[in-house]
């Protein structure tokens, strides 16, 4: 019998960072038992990231940690991270955390002869041993270089330190200030070669974005892109840009659009659950209204919905929708609907995306409306926007969230195809509905049509719709001689039709009367002929009688 | 005048703490070098405490010790910290203001 052998899959041992998103990029965390270098410029979040690594290690994975600070005193650190919801004092009291501030002041220290850094080793070793720490942070060890003169000793000692840390089997995080030509000012990356992460803080067009990149990670796969990250009241969260595969589950459920007429335009009677819908159109074509309709419809079915309004405040949106008979307040009150308003320029794209992600995690909605997505486009460059939308749509797909985006187009008069602004979105969305102005003689009508609907047959007509006090109403298709009619043309066509109808009616009755007259004439003629015939017959019979009489007479004469 | 000042500093009692680590070469040198200096310039007028941070690990943190060996002069003020094996006697003496 052949024994079945399963090839052993080696899993590189990792220490999960507990930092939202970072574990996904690093495929599980930092290399366990090895040093990791985090470098970046001032204020890019090195200390925070390393602190979060320690604290999450303690709270989530029960791994005690040592934080050796070369820059900030322990009290300052405690205070700094307190605002992010980390209570260092408690962890210290629980013997899970040791914070040691190493102060090396150049002005206070003189050097005379050979030395080594045994003091540091012993302090660190003592701290590690006393709480059985498995995680260690050295923040920022390069400070030593400014405090001590003998570079040769320092370099040799650092090499020894990292070697020693490895031997100790602790997962260490070393932070380093970014240098001009090298990753760190003192070239720490030469010593720490297992995993190097670079943090970056950039301001482009007044919008700041923090980014993270894994420069190298020995013995493991990792994402190689730059990943934006966010520091907020919960610490750091990193945003993995793209999921590598397109293998999310799909649903064949249909959700109604909430707009009766629009449902009919789709063969299946609505959108697929978990699909993305783009509603594009020029200004004032009722995109928001369509979005709100969909939102209320979903809320009605107890589907949790988040409405991101980038143009209106929640109050304004609620009021405006009320004017056409859409009651959003009801659902806000019962908690199925959330409206989030912010100016798109408030944050960088990534921050918006992260906010979205956070809200999705917290609220777990099944429906999301972003009104309008084109406002986000104004924040970044084409490329950035596209990549962000890909990420957004990925994220929504993975969570099986039905998403409706509205997109504002520039005014277009000559073509039905919307402008290039949403070229970037169009290939990503599953369903694309366009609402557009149809300008005629002195008036403007709204038309709606479906450009595409993946996996579903749909109407090819441009349907006119109107907004009344009771909401949206899709009008019946009116086929004129030149195609589909709208607005006044529809009206005049109707009028013309009525007039011609009346005319026809008149004509018919006139013809009827004529026939009647003709019949009467005919009947009269028939009567006359009959009479003639009768008189001829009479004459004939008279003649016959006369002849009979003559015959009789002649026979008598014989 | 200058002589008087140096006389004054020389006569004040010196208090030193020397931090060493076990039997390391540098530590041994430091102890030797310090003894030699003290015997020459501060005969019987000094207190020297030698702390082996390998045994007394807490002390390393308390005194902010990073490098070994570290010599701290507590008295007379100002407090001075010298790291290294003290092989550069001239520099050490200058720092301790034992010579001009």
From TrEMBL, chain A:
Recorded coiled-coil stretches: 512-546
Keyword 4Fe-4S listed: no
Enzyme Commission number, as recorded: 2.7.11.1
Recorded superkingdom: Bacteria
Keywords: Coiled coil, Hydrolase, Kinase, Phosphoprotein, Repeat, Transferase
InterPro entries assigned: Circadian_clock_KaiC-rel, KaiC, KaiC-like_dom, KaiC_dom, KaiC_N, P-loop_NTPase
Keyword Transferase: yes
Domain KaiC: start-end pairs: 13-252, 253-488
CDD domains according to UniProt: KaiC-N
Enzyme class: transferase
PANTHER family: CIRCADIAN CLOCK OSCILLATOR PROTEIN KAIC 1, PTHR42926
NCBIfam families hit by this protein: PRK09302.1
Listed name of the protein: non-specific serine/threonine protein kinase
Lineage: Bacteria, Pseudomonadati, Bacteroidota, Flavobacteriia, Flavobacteriales
